[in-house]
Design goal:
Helix content: over 70%
Number of helices: 19
Oligomer: single chain
Length: 414
Amino acid sequence: MAFVDIPMTSTRLRVAEGFWRAAMVSLAIIPLGMSIAHRSSPLYVVLSAVFCLVATCVEGRIRPFLRDLAGALTSPLGLAVLAFFGWSLASAGWSEFKSVSLFSLGELWLPIAAILVLALTLPKHLTQQMFWLLTGTFLVAGIVIMAELATGLILRRAIGVRSDPFIFNRPVLTLLMLALPLTAWLLGNVRRGVIWGLALLLFLSAVVIRSESDAAVLGLAIICLTFPMAWFLPRVTFGLTAFAVLMAFCVSPLIGPITAQLITPAMHEKIASSHSRERVELWQSFGFVVRQKPILGSGFGISPRMAETTIAQKVPVEHQRMLNIGHPHNAALQIWVELGAIGAAIAVLVAFLTLRMVWQLPHLTRCASMALIAGAGPVALVGHGAWQGWWAASLGAAIIWMQAASRFQTETKL
């Protein structure tokens, strides 16, 4: 790093400050960037992490950073995450499509690595002004999404880019996650924060309802329920969240048969817009895959090619067709499919250790963080593939902003 050799300390500090500012701006513009390019959040978190590393080098603080990194990775949560990474990497060894598995590993773990760098370096630098910038890009992104959908994506059609309405589901889910650290910051640091927090919620609700994302509607409803519960009944909410995580992983291999029995034809008709019949069939098909390799799984990231595997040939013929969908639209089930019971057990451990860390946070940040987990869980259980990089990056960005919001937290009385 040539910057380390800059002779003037004041010059070096000014250069470092420039990189810190670039890192903060990169993170703050994620909402707007996602509203334009709906898979772009990994670009912004990786770019922000690179800027943070350069700034750290310029300041001559690489050794303290490495010590912090070693401490994070050897903590109980860090070791659990490393175990999940190690098992994911090992499973690529028995994947029938190793290149697909390795690509999925990169798609997931590159943004996670970037988020780790950001978590260790950036929160202490994020300022009130950057929260206002995030608020601005949040609002502009929501307006862009609603305007695009209201006009039938006429601008995208005119310039010849992808113009399916559902592409805005990803930026809407990103807004859903980022709304929680923004709300925590508004409540703790802005005059009449409750009013502004409610206004943000109403704006987000308008965006979510206008979109085609049923997962976002579900996540928003659970967030609106969880936040006040966590405020007034923190222990009950914590216990229910932990129980829900455990049940999600215990039930997911059987979710297909269970929902097939519970959801009647009349209910399917009422919720046809959410493709409930297709989801149930999909869960049944991937449930049969789990039965073939229940302990080890079929290999990380193999779901997009599952229909072409020898495992698929052992699935009943009437259920093979749905394996072409690409993933089971249920993160817990996908972990069972690809990483088996061992991977599912490690994932539960990671979730529980995360909850334990959340419990130790100050009250306001803890409430927002539990709502974040409670909202992200159902989205992952009914929506996108488990390893999509945009989701890891967007969720990770919300965590970084939550860390920063915790720094600014003051005693708030509602």
